[in-house]
Each structure stands twice: as C-alpha cells, then as structure tokens.
Amino acid sequence: MALQTNKVVTFNYTLKDENGEMLDSTEKGGPFTFITGNMQVLPGLEEALGNMIIGSKKNIKLAAVDAYGEYDEGAVQKVKRNLFPEEAELEIGLTYFAHSPEGQHLQFVITEMENDDITVNFNHPLAGKNLEFDVHLLDVRDATPEEISHGHVHGPGGHHH
Predict the structure, then answer these.
(1) For residues 86 and 3, which has the higher predicted lDDT (pLDDT)?
(2) Which residues fall within 8 angstroms of residue 53, CB to CB, at 6 or more apart?
(3) What is the pTM of this model?
(4) What radius of gyration, in Å, describes the C-alpha atoms of the chain?
(5) What is the model's pLDDT at position 160?
(6) Which domains does the chain have, with CATH numbers?
(7) How many Å apart are CA 43 and CA 5, to the nearest integer?
(8) Which is nearest to 41 in space by CA: 15, 59, 22, 74?
(9) Nearest of 18, 105, 20 to residue 62 by alpha carbon
(10) What is the pLDDT of the chain when averaged over all its residues?
C-alpha cells in the first residue's frame, strides 16, 4: 500500500550502480529521514518504501529514466568565462549553482576549461545510470504540523533548530 502524504520515513540504504559499485550509503552517517509526498526522494524509491513493513529489507532497482533521467547531451554547454563572477574561483570537477531566467536553482559541474571557454554540464551526476538500492525500513510516523510547515524532519535524523 502506498504511503500517505506527510509521513516521516526513516531508513538505511546502500546505493550501487548497475555494475555493483557503491555510490552512497547511510552506514557511517546514520539513517536517512524524509517527509513523503514532497519530492524529497526519487518517486520510485518512495513508492517501494511504501510497500514495505517496518523492519524489513528490500532490494530496489530503478532504471535511469525512473531515477535521475537519461543523460542529455544538450545539457552540456560551452559558455564564456565572463558569465561567471570575476572573483569566482573555477575548477574542473567542482559543483556550482546558477539561476534560470525563471529563478529556478540549477546545479552544474565544470568539465573543461580552455582559455575563456568553460564547458558546463547540467546533468545530474547520476543521470543515465541504472541504480540499485538496498534498503532497510526503520520507521514510519506522522509528520508533525511544524515539520509539514517547514518542509523537513525535525529531531533525530532530521533538522534541528
């Protein structure tokens, strides 16, 4: 059964790519906690967690299209250095943020620099990758009114004010 909106879900996970290479894990940082129905995790992952019993473990495979999308060559662009603030220290491989004309936050990585030409990649780092999550569902509870209004979890595993 799918989880209702505004539930706090706490789980541990290990994320691997389709070759079995570990990409991320909660092993050292402690469980991950989110509020359902707020696009805080991948929809396919949230749906799979909603079909689990607290305390159970599951392997969840998401195709690239259902994870961070297919890799889009059009999201790789060459721009001029003068589009960046003059004082900005630019480095290949670092993540930067920009704003679209509509005010949306856009994350990108610099992949190449040649004279005044800077190649930027707006694809998510995991775009085009099939993903595999090993999850252990630890808890599901109702979000508090304060958590709902703030849009994040408070207390253990969440944000502290």
Answers:
(1) 86
(2) 137
(3) 0.81
(4) 19
(5) 46
(6) 7-68+127-150 (3.10.50.40), 73-121 (2.40.10.330)
(7) 12
(8) 15
(9) 18
(10) 92
Q: What is the pLDDT of residues 45-80, one digit of tens each?
A: 999 999 999 999 999 999 999 999 999 999 999 999
In sequence order, what E strands does the chain have?
Answer: 7-17, 22-25, 32-35, 57-62, 76-80, 95-99, 105-114, 117-121, 131-142
- d(Cα 22, Cα 17) in Å, to the nearest integer? 7
Interatomic CA distance for residues 17 and 81, integer angstroms: 34
The pLDDT tens digits for 24-46 are: 999 999 999 999 998 999 999 99
Residue closest to 132 by CA, chosen among 49, 27, 61:
61
Determine whether 35 is exposed, middle or buried from the number of CB atoms within 10 Å of its CB (0-12, 13-18, 19+): buried
Structure tokens at 11: 């789980």
